Amino acid sequence: MLLCLTLVALPTCIKVGTPLLLRPSPSSWSVVAVDLQAHTIQLRQGQGEPQPFQLIGIEVPRDRQSEAEAIVAMLTRHGRTPLDVVIIDLPGDVDGGIPVLPNETTVQEILLADGLVTYEALEELPDRWQMQFRNAEFAARLDRRNVWSQSSSVQ
After folding, report:
1. What is residue 5's predicted lDDT score, i.e. its pLDDT?
2. Is beta strand 95-100 parallel, antiparallel or unpaired with respect to 84-88?
3. Sequence-ordered strand ranges (E) for the chain
4. Is 85 helix (H, G, I), strand (E, B) or coil?
5. Fewest CB within 10 A of the end CB: N or C in the chain?
6. Tens-digit pLDDT profile for residues 53-105
7. Which residues pair with residue 53 across a beta bridge?
8. Distance separating alpha carbons of residues 137 and 132, to the nearest angstrom
9. Positive or negative torsion for Cα 89, 91, 93, 94
10. Can you tell me whether residue 6 is helix, strand or coil?
11. CA–CA separation, 60 vs 81, rounded Å?
């Protein structure tokens, strides 16, 4: 069943009965720490306590972990770049997170497009993000970047 509401002439649709919950979050988040081996990023909202989020939609090869973490640090200027965060409720104690940079690109998209990580399909990930992440990975495959440099074919 699809429930649609119109608020200020903008349609908002929610599929009733879906376990996915998206919560809007203010844009005052900053990166505190990144641990891509554990697929987590610690974010702080304003002066609050750091909160862990699972970086969903990506798989990080061990040999690219430190390079990917360095890219995240550079992108976020070591915590000085304010981020928006799409928060996705996941089973367990840690919510999923999609950190969005000021230019509206996600951290996951950049890592995928650079070929430093691979796309990991996740049922809880909304279609919009799945498509963006797949497209970013496809671009890396076409250009044979990093993990795709030894690939013989693009699928």
Report:
1. 40
2. antiparallel
3. 2-7, 10-15, 22-23, 29-35, 40-45, 51-55, 58-59, 84-88, 95-100, 118-119
4. strand
5. C
6. 999 999 999 999 999 999 999 999 888 999 999 999 999 999 999 999 999 99
7. 41, 95
8. 9
9. negative
10. strand
11. 23
Q: How many angstroms separate the Cα of 38 from the Cα of each of 56, 63, 122? A: 11, 14, 16
**Alpha-helical regions (H) of 17-126:** 65-75, 107-113
Phi, psi of 101 (to 5 degrees): -75, 165
Structure tokens of 36? 């891509």
Q: Kind of pairing, strands 84-88 and 22-23?
A: antiparallel
Task: Provide the 10 A C-beta neighbour count for residue 52.
Answer: 16
Q: How many helices (H) and strands (E) does the chain have?
A: 3, 10
**74-99 b/e with 16+ CB inside 10 Å = b?**
ebbeebeeebbbbbbebeeeebbbbb
Q: How is residue 147 written in tokens? A: 């993990």
